[in-house]
Amino acid sequence: MSLTVSPALLDAAERGPVDDAEFVACVRDSLPYAFETVRRVVTELEATGADHADDAVPPPTEAERGQLLRALASDAIRGGLERHFNVRLAFQNCHRVAAFRPAAVDSAAYRAFVSARGQLLNQSPELRNC
Q1: How many whole angstroms separate alpha carbon 38 and alpha carbon 99?
Q2: What is the pLDDT of residues 51-103, one digit of tens each?
Q3: Per-residue burial over 4-35, b = 16 or more CB atoms within 10 Å of its CB, e = otherwise
């Protein structure tokens, strides 16, 4: 799943560094399900005041799952989203997205979420094919 890059943005990239806002807008337009999932988790994080929030609802289709995989497997896309929303993103099971406040990255909750144990405990037979 590729980003849909406008000729103007491609031209800008060919000339030098690209503005984060333009890059995130390209991600938002190209991967709307992934962008909305991250936005929703960040909104929950902000509303609750907690150190982190996550969304474990599987995407409705494989196309949406592909968007999440594309967004969170790319260092550039993930980094752009993290800077845009001022969070640290974590990802499990090809659909479980978590957002952590920057100050919580060294927390027990963060370490548990990104650990091998956390991955194994959140595995299920339904998720083994994703």
Answers
A1: 8
A2: 999 998 889 999 999 999 999 999 999 999 999 999 999 998 778 899 999 99
A3: ebeeebeebeeeeebeeeebbbbbbebbebbb
pTM: 0.87
Structural contact between residues 26 and 4, judged by C-beta atoms closer than 8 angstroms: yes
What is the distance, to the nearest Å, from the Cα of residue 80 to the centroid of all Cα atoms in its chain?
A: 10
Residue indicated by tokens 């999440």: 68
Nearest to 27 by CA among 59, 61, 73, 62: 73
Q: Residue 88 CB: number of other CB atoms within 10 A? A: 18
Instruction: Take residue 41 and report the two structure tokens written for it.
Output: 């988790």
32 — phi, psi (to 5°)?
-60, -35
Residue in the block written with tokens 């949406």? 64
- The answer to whether the beta carbons of residues 75 and 82 sit under 8 Å apart is no
* Separation of alpha carbons 6 and 26, rounded Å: 8
Listed residue (43, 38, 5) closest to 23, CA to CA: 5
d(CA 11, CA 15): 6
